[in-house]
Amino acid sequence: MPMDKGRKLTWKEACEILGCGKTCFYTLVRKGILPAYRLDGTNKGLWVYENDCRCLVKNIRHFQQG
């Protein structure tokens, strides 16, 4: 059974969780740091999973404290 990754977020919703702006969000996606998905067969509809965003925030905080 696939792991529940939470709800699908738009870039705006993801930025609220990540505490960053649109440019930073797209940089994270472009570099493969934050997995992102598009609707099949289209260039529209970029989204990310909520749990991927929260995991990234957790890892950044852990790295900063480490």
Descriptive account of the structure:
By secondary structure, this protein is mainly alpha-helical. 50% of the residues lie in helices and 6% in strands. The protein has a two-stranded antiparallel sheet with strand order 1-2. The longest helix has 16 residues, at 50-65. The model has no long low-confidence stretch (mean pLDDT 91).
Q: TL;DR?
A:
This protein has 3 helices and 2 strands. By secondary structure, it is mainly alpha-helical.
Helices and strands, in order, run as EHHEH
What is the strand tally?
2
Strand-residue fraction?
Answer: 5-15%
Segments where pLDDT lies below 50 for 5+ residues? none
Radius of gyration: 12 Å
Shape: globular
The chain-level mean pLDDT equals 91
Quaternary organisation: single chain
What share of residues is helical?
40-55%
Structural class: mainly alpha
Largest sheet: 2 strands, antiparallel
What count of helical segments does DSSP give? 3
